Amino acid sequence: xxxxxxxxxxxxxxxxxxxxxxxASARTGLLLAAAGVTAFSLTFPATTWALEGLGPxxxxxxxxxxxxxxxxGCLAALRVPVPARRLWPGLAVVAAGTVIGFPLLxxxxxxxxxxxxAAVVVGLLPLTTAAxxxxxxxxxxxxxxxxxxxxxxxxxxxxxxxxxxxxxxxGDLYLGAALLVCAAGYxxxxxxxxxxPGWQVIGWALAGCLPLAALGAVVAVQAEPVRLTATAxxxxxxxxxGSQFLGLLVWYRGMGLTGVARASQLQLAQPLxxxxxxxxxxxxxxxxxxxxxxxxxxxxIAVTQRARA
Length: 309
Prior knowledge:
Blueprint: H1 10-14, H2 23-41, H3 43-50, H4 56-77, H5 88-109, H6 115-137, H7 143-163, H8 172-192, H9 198-223, H10 230-258, H11 260-265, H12 270-282, H13 289-306
Helix pairs in contact: 2-10, 2-12, 3-10, 4-5, 4-9, 4-10, 5-8, 5-9, 6-7, 6-8, 6-12, 7-13, 8-10, 9-10
């Protein structure tokens, strides 16, 4: 079956965009979304590594080029037809939010912000993603769902702000903008994953950005200092293959199976995972507040998964 016809399958008709599926498919979706969150939790440490050898614009464009080549190769090898034109606007939102906007803005923020402070943005992503999805699809989760999601977001925000000392940083504007564009990209990608396989959603978004990314990489590498080390190369490779390709692949597939709102709440655990990686990989110290915040976040996730969405 061609991709353009996939929206007419019985499963696509039976499950409107933005609404969660039931049973085994929903559980599989949660597992896939959790795998995506785990991959994303390594993004900030990997970005810190990459910034040791490249400038922020170089890191962003080089990772886009590498991920775009991976995606284009997969699409070409499997002879996947170009999506129907009615899907192009949604793919453009995915590209603008998750391929370009979020990586660039968070990389710029990490020049002046610690990984703990940057974790604020991923702590708020579940709530903003669910809100964008509700506005976009007309689906309205229950009051219990929203209360648990808001509580979890507040817990994560308070924890991250406490860890950073509570003082605003110059990266805050970048983080705020990244939050908005990424929420739109996640929610739109989850909606498209009901009509295209999840890997094709991010695959076409990455492939479409490849010409722009290649041009940007040439300019950025010439304009910014380059000092390649094993650590910097490892960070760039993970950002491209792990965070921007494989991570988004399973994430969009998971949202397509279990629903954008429910899957997005798993990201409440992402800031705490990022803090754990920052200790193990970057040598940062983890304060005693982390276990308490982790328990509170897990409770909120449990409530959102049980709430009728």
